[in-house]
Design brief:
The complex is a heterodimer of chains A (about 325) and B (about 400). Helices cover about 75% and strands about 0% of the residues of chain A. With about 325 residues, chain A is mostly helical. Chain A has a domain at about 40-235. In chain A, strands 1-2 form a two-stranded antiparallel ribbon. In chain A, helix 2 runs parallel beside helix 7 (about 155-175). The longest helix of chain A has 27 residues, at about 200-225. Chain A is globular and about 55 Å long. Chain B is an alpha/beta fold and about 400 residues long. Chain B has two domains: about 35-165 and about 305-375, Response regulator (Rossmann fold, 3-Layer(aba) Sandwich), CATH 3.40.50; about 170-295, Rossmann fold, CATH 3.40.50. In chain B, about 40% of the residues lie in helices and about 20% in strands. Chain B contains twelve helices and 17 strands. Chain B has helices at about 1-15, 60-80, 100-110, 125-135, 170-180, 195-210, 230-235, 250-260, 275-280, 305-315, 325-340, 345-355; strands spanning about 45-50, 85-95, 115-120, 140, 150-155, 155, 160-165, 185-195, 215-220, 240-245, 265-270, 290-295, 360, 365-370, 375, 380-385, 390-395. In chain B, the strands form four sheets. Chain B has a seven-stranded mixed sheet, sandwiched between helices. Chain B has a five-stranded parallel sheet with strand order 2-1-3-4-7, sandwiched between helices. Chain B has a three-stranded antiparallel sheet with strand order 13-14-15, covered by helices on one side. In chain B, strand 11 (about 265-270), helix 9 (about 275-280) and strand 12 form a beta-alpha-beta unit. The termini of chain B are far apart. At the A-B interface, helix 1, helix 2, helix 7 and helix 12 of A face helix 1, helix 2, strand 2, helix 3 and helix 4 of B.
Chain lengths: ~325, ~400
Amino acid sequence: MKKNLKYNLIWLALACVIYFGLFALYNGGFITIFTDAIIVNIGINVILAVGLNLIIGFSGQLSLGHAGFMAIGAYAAAILTQNNPTYIAFAVSLIVGMLISGAIALIVGIPTLRLKGDYLAIATLGVSEIIRILIVNFDELTNGPSGIFGIAQFSNWQVVFIFMVIAVLLVSNYIRSGAGRATLAVREDEIAAEAMGVNTAKYKVTAFVIGAMLASLAGSLYATYQQSVFPNDYDFMKSIDILIIVVFGGIGSTTGAIVAAGVLGFLNMYLQDFGSLRMIIYALAIVGIMIFKPSGLLGTWEFSIKRIIDKFSKKGDDQDASTNS
Amino acid sequence: MKKKLAFLFASVFLLTACSAGPNGGGGASAGGGDSDAGNKQEGDTIKVGLNLELSGAVAGYGTQEEEGAELAVEKINEDGGILGKKVELVKKDNKSDNNEAATTTANLTTNDGIVAMIGPATSGAVKAAIPNVTKAQVPMITPSGTDDSITVSNDQVQDYVFRSCFQDSFQGVILAKYASDNLDADKAAIFGDNSSDYATGLTKAFTDEYDGEVVAKENFTKGDKDFQAALTKLKKTDFDVLYVPGYYEEAGLIIKQAREMGIDQPIIGADGFGDEKMIQLAGKENVSDVFYTGHFSTLAPANDTVEPFIDDFNEKYDKEPSTFNALSYDAMLMIKEAIENEDSADSADIAKGLAELKDFVGVTGTISIDKDHNPEKPLVVVGFTDGKESSAEKIEP
């Protein structure tokens, strides 16, 4: 546990370095409104991708319902801060959104996670569409298809960065925990895991609930940065966009999800000039990666501070050994 | 152990201590000159941004608006530009995505230093773009964002948001009056798209204004292809007019299926009908007794600029101009007029010029911008017989 804390603190130190680097760039006036939007969107996509990666990459369940849970978070933030634009209301909306998403994921997860592969994907897609259609039809609360705009801007790059760090640490630590090992066992061989006494349903549902709650968190941040929410923003294609990030980075790699969110974020930024060709170029880039790197940019590889420390300490040991001899 | 974990998460939150208010860390800078006065016009060109749906779900509207704006710029530059400077169109694609519309706006206003923006085409994308044009103090004109709340939200006029099209409430009101007064319809049936803000706005405006009785209400969703079940229900109802608030993709199929089913009452709709594809989808023989609120018609030309516009458009693109072509053409010319009236191409001055625009002669009518940044201009109710425009009635606001 001490060792784990040490690595977490090193990760936090690294996050601080990145944070202060960005802070300096912002204060120096190097970041425009546009670059800020790209950075924030990348941060939000990282939260979405690590959450979905936990479901798909680590527990082996194919979910296409991520956009629905994101919508819950977005609308929770929009509705709860609309008449009370305070940071307390924003904090409450984050919690409310995550609790609702978690509860729905739990209710939906228990029966649907008995399904496998395509069947599960279709079930989760159905749930996501139900959420979106309910949002469209509950127009007294959600303003229907017109959406809600003029939301106070509580999210900025700092808020998003902090929650991104928390999300990444949460998922990384979960995977290294006992529950995480059990989740990985379920992914590798469900029958064998069950034979070893692992409660497979419990760990699949847990991963699904955590992923859904992270999607809700991302949705809340998205709504309060964008200052508007519309039901059409959370359709089936949004789930596919998040799935693309996970697959592009490498299913089962948190590092891959982070890198892919960054790469695709900047790719999107540069493609704005290409008009109707943009979708073709974007698609070709993804197809190209899938052809040359079928397991994604990083496969299942993870950036590991432990590995670096071990490498350097090993070098040190070798040098000590050579000087002593 | 718990203390250590608490310390771990507390240290993450310590990062927030550096925040200087909601937009901490100095915030993002709005490029292009003095941020207090928006973007300044620099060099020999006047940069106007096009933030349109050139790919994705509603690329049909975006590409048409791109054509209209391009033609307008070509004409302006042929005539010597504006204040002796050429106009440069900086085009960006928002891929029919609201989030993307916001980042595209930021890109145009900061990286490209545009002084005015045309687009986006849809109301949702316009709403998403509003915070960024407001931060950058760059005016935008949407050619087809019809939602009432775009220009006025919570009784607050959006300083940098304008439109060249009508708002939903105006079209809904006119259609309600037209149904009662011109079509003598005492009973109306509504078959509307409940998945679009455009259609729900039109439905509300019509329902609030209509003198007669709404005897039936059915809904469809964007992308639907088969309307037989709902139309069968409607056929059993006694009504005088069928109101279809929605876009041409669904409207064309609804008209086709309704006529084939024997529903021969007049069908009315708003400017979303205004595309040649509507007639193609419905089949010419089915498009009779169909009326919609349009922005211009050759049968009732708003002024002398309509014919030359149609000829120029035909020559450049080898096709008839659509409503969307005309609206973006006017949007560009409104920017030109505002620059000339203010004798300045700085974004803040253009916004002022647009807010004070009076009696501008455009192809969709003589336009004056009202206090809510909406255009006051005549509306045309276009009637069809066998897929051809057979009547056009100009209605003053």
